Amino acid sequence: MFNIYGVHHNPTYWDNPESFDPDRFTPERSGKRPGAAFIPFSIGSRACLGYNLALMQIQLVVAMVARVFRLNVVPEHPVEPVAMVSLLPRHGIQVTASPRL
Fold first, then answer.
1. What percentage of the chain reaches a pLDDT higher than 90?
2. Higher pLDDT, 25 or 92
3. Distance (Å, rounded) from C-alpha 54 to C-alpha 72?
4. What is the dihedral of CA 52, 58, 63, 69, to 10 degrees?
5. 78: which residues sit within 8 A by CB, 6+ positions away?
């Protein structure tokens, strides 16, 4: 068993690993990291066969939702992650969706 959460939150590879920072995946910043520092679908011969399809689908869905709505986490219900086999929110994630004008 491999601790993916530990790798994804290792300060050796990530600045402020506990903070949300999508810019850490820009080409300028990700080029300085080893390829195995981010492995959400595993690597090697046991890698997920649906990796490319999953990435395309999530990018499409997020773009479509973000184009129409602004999503905000409900302040009274902060996200509390629990490290299991994968990372799960302890009490779910509550968001509000307001239309973009």
1. 37
2. 92
3. 24
4. 180
5. none
Q: How far apart are CA 55 and CA 22, in angstroms?
A: 15
What is d(CA 5, CA 96) in angstroms, rounded to the nearest whole number?
Answer: 27
Task: Identify the pLDDT of residue 72.
Answer: 93
Distances (CA, A) of 75 to 4, 46, 56, 66: 28, 39, 30, 19
Q: Which residues contact 63 (CB under 8 A, 6 or more apart)?
A: none
Report the distance separating Cα 77 and Cα 18, nearest Å: 18
Burial of 69 (0-12, 13-18, 19+ CB in 10 A): middle
Of 48, 44, 36, nearest in space to 8 by CA? 36
In a 13 Å sphere around the CA of 28, the CA atoms on its Cβ side amount to: 2
